[in-house]
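Hi R.,

Here's the chain you asked about this morning:
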Amino acid sequence: MAILINCSNDSTENNFSEDQTTPSLSVSTQTLTFSDTEILMFSEPKTLTFSGLDLSDVLVINTGFNFEISLDAQNFESEITIQTVNNQISSQILYVRFAPSENAIGQISESLIFTSTNANSQSVNLIANGIGTNPNLNVNYSELFFDDTIVGGISESIPIEITASNLTSFLNISSGGQFLISLDEISYNSTLQIDQQTANEDFLLYVRFEPSEIGESSNLLEFTSEELTPVSVELVGTGIPLVYNYQAFNETRLAYGGGFSQSSTQTFTLHDDTTNIESVIMYLQLDCPSGGCNEWDVYSNILVRDLSTNNWYEIGRYITPYGVGTDQLERGLEIDVTDFKSLLKGNVELKAFIEVWGSDGWKLSVDFDYIEGTPDYQYYEIAPIVQYNNNSLAGVIYGEDASAFDLTKDVFVPSNAESMHLRTIITGWGHATPNDSDGRPCAEWCYRTHNVKINNNQEFQHYLGPIGCVTNPVSPQNGNWAPDRAGWCPGMAVPNRINSLEASLAGTTFNFDYEFEPWTNDLLSTSSNIHAYYAMSSFIVVKSNSPIDKPTVIN
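And the predicted structure, written out as tokens:
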């Protein structure tokens, strides 16, 4: 029996699977930003690192038209090919620089690309700004404004940043006028010339204002060179006058009772030469004593003694506020006393008066600003025509027999007077009747128009009407401060009424007559305040550019 034996081998197929790997590329950053660079020049290089794993082919790195790359920071190209070692590229440094072409002006954005077969490519954004080679100059200001500066003084300097490039000739800088320039903040001139090497480097220019006259000044700061389109900066500054300040009364306590007085007379040293003084301004500050201010609005003034006649002249009048000080005003009440500058020089005797009826009273401070400038005329003189102003009730009685008060005078004016005017202060007091139709008694409240006659002709009128008490910056006050009085307000200076006289009166004697608007007091007031008064002073002021005598007032 035959036995068949299968001699073939029983084979089993063996499947071997190798590890499958994915090629990969890695870079250390996604963006590189470069400094501004002139065209056809090179920036400082930036760096990044790169590597590759399981690469099946070479790595190719290429960049755009305006950038270059290098492995050694010396040899730069637009494309680099790198061979792998055991299919790997170990971490390496790549140097990248901006190399703007001739037309690469402005912002440039390109890409740095890393590619290898079967690997996902990598991209790095390259950002830079190309600068042209045309001459260029930039200034970080188009205009400069300087703080107000005293004439003859010097402002703080302002530094400005100058950036220039591609200049091939001298840079000329000029300011002119009252503005000066400097490179070192030490030596200042109106013009500078800078060589092109220095000019092409960023630098600071210092500018300052040196006013020689009062008022606003403007000029151009100009930059020019042979190849540069001119660049200019507007310069603006205001010259203010030199001011000499003198303190007179300093928190002088004025009160009634308690050992105090309503007035104080003191001697002060003021400016000794007024030939170059354009104006004199007096400031009055009222402060409250520790127990509080007096609660009433009362008549107050400042007077100067004329040493040649020994008479007192009222240089300014004001009314106290109701129970508050004037500290809301930086310097208090302001009165122009230039008309009296012939008396307000050297050692001066001043009298302060506040008609206060209480031991509380006030602390009064007075100071003067002598403002340097060109006076309208070199010489001033002043003389009183009438003064009925010792206090509120020493004024001219209104609406009754006033024959005791002489309001008619003859005034002689020196022949060389080139300008002359009247200066009048007047305030009404009392609550006399009959009231006006709107219920206003006289003379504190009743509105009136008074006439000033020169040589029997009505030349001027003084309207004693409202001046806006409710808008007084010294507010709020205590008491009845807001309603309008006849020509004055609590907590304000009394207006000076200035009336210019004809130049033809020089060398003549003219007649002055002050007339009140007709009204008759019926003496029916139910209070003790049955009279009406006008406290007034009127002066004649003459000016000349040659030495001038005082006017003469004849009773």
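Confidence is low (pLDDT under 50) at residues 1-19.

Let me know if you need anything else.
M.
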